Amino acid sequence: MTSVLRDLDPRSLDRAATDLCLTQVSAVRPAQLSYPTPCDEWNLGELVAHLVAENRGFASNASGVVDRLAWQPGPPEVALVEFPASVELLAKAFADDEVLQRMVEVREFGVFPGPVAAAMHFLDYLVHAWDVARAIDLPNPIPVELAAAALRLSALFPAARPVGGAFAAVVPVGEGAGAVERLLALTGRDPEWSAR
């Protein structure tokens, strides 16, 4: 773990990913909440509700207060309005250096050192920014440098994908695939996915 995180600050990476996701979610209109997404189990509204719940859950538990109810998604229409505030709530929690020394419970996945929890949120939010963008037919928003950092941090997590796990099975891509395509494939997404 320490070798992977030695020269990467997952909190600054995570802020970049949450800001990126905020830009995409800010483009969503209420009439689009029923749109499909690359996450087969969620439409766009359900994905936005998940994103707000993730921010609240990580923020609470990173602050040292285990609140399992914070992880429960609310109504999509409410989540769409509350998304920006949830981003700031998370940013405030991760800005406290104490989180680096704290163990953080992450939903049903377990308890992790603070830096690993921040890396988990970063990876999740980066690919969800792409999910939101593609659901509303916007171009890929992920910068190559963030994709490369996410690929490096992915070494922290097991490659095995249990049923019901965080991501679907790895999608095969060609040898010449770039960092963004490899990240999407690693997290179970078809880089060519389109809602049309």
From TrEMBL:
<dbReference type="Pfam" id="PF11716">
    <property type="entry name" value="MDMPI_N"/>
</dbReference>
<dbReference type="InterPro" id="IPR017520">
    <property type="entry name" value="CHP03086"/>
</dbReference>
<protein>
    <submittedName>
        <fullName>TIGR03086 family metal-binding protein</fullName>
    </submittedName>
</protein>
<dbReference type="InterPro" id="IPR017517">
    <property type="entry name" value="Maleyloyr_isom"/>
</dbReference>
<dbReference type="InterPro" id="IPR034660">
    <property type="entry name" value="DinB/YfiT-like"/>
</dbReference>
<feature type="domain" description="Mycothiol-dependent maleylpyruvate isomerase metal-binding">
    <location>
        <begin position="16"/>
        <end position="133"/>
    </location>
</feature>
<dbReference type="InterPro" id="IPR024344">
    <property type="entry name" value="MDMPI_metal-binding"/>
</dbReference>
